[in-house]
Amino acid sequence: MKVVSINLGDIIAQLVAFIILAVLLKKYAWGPLVEVMKKREEHIANEIDTAEQQRKEAEQFLTSQRAELDKARDEAKAIIEGAKKLGEQQGADLIAEARAEAGRLKEQAKDEIRQEKEQALAAVREQVASLSVLIASKVIEKELDEASQQQLISDYLKQVGEGK
Q1: Burial letters for 102-116: b for 16+ Cβ neighbours within 10 Å, e otherwise?
Q2: Is there a contact between 152 and 140 (Cβ–Cβ < 8 Å)?
Q3: Which of 27, 30, 51, 125 is the most buried (most CB within 10 A)?
Q4: pTM higher than the cut 0.85
Q5: Is the confidence at residue 84, as pLDDT, over 80?
Q6: How confident is the model at residue 120 (pLDDT cuts 50, 70, 90)?
Q7: How far apart are CA 29 and CA 24, in angstroms?
């Protein structure tokens, strides 16, 4: 069997070397490493805060854009309704004007027809009177003798004289 001997001097030397190494690592490696980790942690925290702030701003912007879009839709709807009402009103006005114009033209046509009718009746009366006189003169010429004609003429002249 082998006997394991423990050398206390080696243990102490290794222990001292380990402690010196640990102190040096803490001073030169661990400190900067922890510092880098803290900076990285702060950077990540800042990035998270910035991202959160940007998210809130984006939500506010989205909310304001939706409100503006709703407002624009309402305005467009109001404009369309106004245009529709204006179009209906103009259509009604045009129809009323057309009806009034048609009534006016109808009355004008009636007046013209009445005038034409009166003129035609007057012309017919004139022709009837002329024809009546012509027929009467023809009949009188054939049926009356000279004495009767003289009597008829004098009666006619008396009537014309009284009529004036």
Answers
A1: eeeeeeeeeeeeeee
A2: yes
A3: 30
A4: no
A5: yes
A6: confident
A7: 7
pLDDT confidence band for 67 (50 / 70 / 90)? very high
Q: What is the mean pLDDT of residues 16-38?
A: 88
Once rounded to an integer, what is the mean pLDDT over residues 74-92?
A: 94
CB 155 within 8 A of CB 163: no
CA dist., res. 129 & res. 52, Å (int) = 113
From the CB of residue 144, how many other CB atoms can be counted at a distance below 10 Å?
Answer: 13
* Cα 41–Cα 45–Cα 49 angle in degrees, nearest 5: 170
d(CA 50, CA 44): 10
Q: How far apart are CA 143 and CA 145, in angstroms?
A: 7
CA-CA distance, 16 to 3, in Å (whole number)? 26
Would the pLDDT of 149 be above 60? Answer: yes
Which residues, other chains included, contact 149 with Cβ-Cβ below 8 Å and sequence gap of 6+? Answer: 140
**Number of residues assigned to the chain:** 164
